[in-house]
Amino acid sequence: KEGKALSFVAPFKGLSEALVSLQ
């Protein structure tokens, strides 16, 4: 379960990090 949740959150985490790097 934890691995599944992590794989679901990972894309959003990467997206937020990308937005921060752009600013």
Overall description:
It is a single chain. This protein is mainly α. 91% of the residues lie in helices and 0% in strands. It is built from 1 helix and no strands. The longest helix has 21 residues, at 2-22. The protein is rod-shaped and about 35 Å long. The mean pLDDT is 85.
Summary of the model, kept short:
This protein has 23 residues and is an all-alpha fold. It is built from one helix and no strands.
Features:
rod-shaped, 23 residues, mainly alpha
Topology:
Elements: H1 2-22
Number of strands: 0
How confident overall, as mean pLDDT?
Answer: 85
What sort of overall outline do the alpha carbons produce when their principal axes are compared?
rod-shaped
Spatial separation of the terminal alpha carbons: 34 Å
Structural class: mainly alpha
Main beta sheet, described? none
β-sheet strand percentage: under 5%
* Helix proportion range: over 70%
Number of helices: 1
Instruction: Write down the secondary-structure element order.
Output: H
Task: Using the CA coordinates, give the radius of gyration.
Answer: 10 Å
**What quaternary form is this?**
single chain
Q: Give the uncertain stretches in residue-range form.
A: none
